[in-house]
Amino acid sequence: NFSLDLSEGRLWLEFDEIINLASIDCQKFSLQNEQVNATTVLALSSESQTSFVNSTTVEINLTKSNLEYIKYQTNFGTSTENTWLILHADAVVDMAMTPNGNMASELYCAALLEDEYPPRLERFSVYMDTLTILLDFDEVVNISSVDSTAITLLSSRNSSFNYSLTGGNVTGDNGPQIMLQMTPRDMNAIKSIESLLFDRNSSWISFTQNLVTDMNHHPVISIPPHSAIQSSAYYNDTE
């Protein structure tokens, strides 16, 4: 059997004998939502890292892209019932150099530890030409939970030159990015404040935890005005 920790992005596999870790081929492991006739399948990346000591317990660290894929799903990786691990032929070898066989093996999930970490904003970019703000988070967020009125734009940290959005249109799907198109009303109000969003140096963001949640309903870590984050990129209005 195996366990999956979505907070740390790790798999733990339990075998009935010691496994030669140097022989493990992560590309021959896959996770899926059903034991048979699965509709969602994730092949592990070749860049996945394993533990370093030969043992009956094998630890596999998932890549960020693999972990994001799992968190993106709603019918897979949300409970032990919809999480299965498939070991394809020759995925592992024991200490006698005997492979796991020519047939795939399905392992049931003995324990699934839900993601306990709230999402965190990593960076944001301003596109004045399209009236949009791009926000990048460290994990998948739920696009349907976005409340753009939680955002305040500032000319610097704790600046009195600031503006709180009154709305906005979010496009796209669940993922680590949010593309927010500001309303014409908000954009006109921002442009009337000469020192706000004029360039990258005058583009800062703060927000409350109401901005967005992750797929496990954890609210984002808020950024108060005194800790506002400067935009990582700024694209000027060409009109």
Can you put this structure into words, describing what you see?
This protein is mainly beta and 239 residues long. It contains 2 helices and 17 strands. The protein has helices spanning 64-72, 184-191; strands at 2-5, 10-19, 29-32, 41-43, 49-50, 55-61, 84-87, 105-113, 121-127, 132-141, 151-154, 162-164, 169-171, 175-181, 204-207, 229-230, 233-235. The chain has an 8-stranded mixed beta sheet with strand order 4-3-7-8-1-2-6-5, with helices on one face. Strand 1 (2-5) and strand 2 form a beta hairpin. The chain is elongated. The N and C termini lie far apart (60 Å). The mean pLDDT is 92.
Distance between the termini: 60 Å
Question: Which percent range fits the helix content?
Answer: under 10%
What does the radius of gyration come to?
23 Å
User: Main sheet?
Assistant: 8 strands, mixed
Helix segment tally:
2
Class per helix and strand makeup: mainly beta
What overall geometry do the principal axes of the alpha carbons give? elongated
Going across the major beta sheet, what is the strand order?
A: 4-3-7-8-1-2-6-5
β content, as a range?
A: 35-45%
What value does the average pLDDT take?
Answer: 92
Order of helices and strands: EEEEEEHEEEEEEEEHEEE
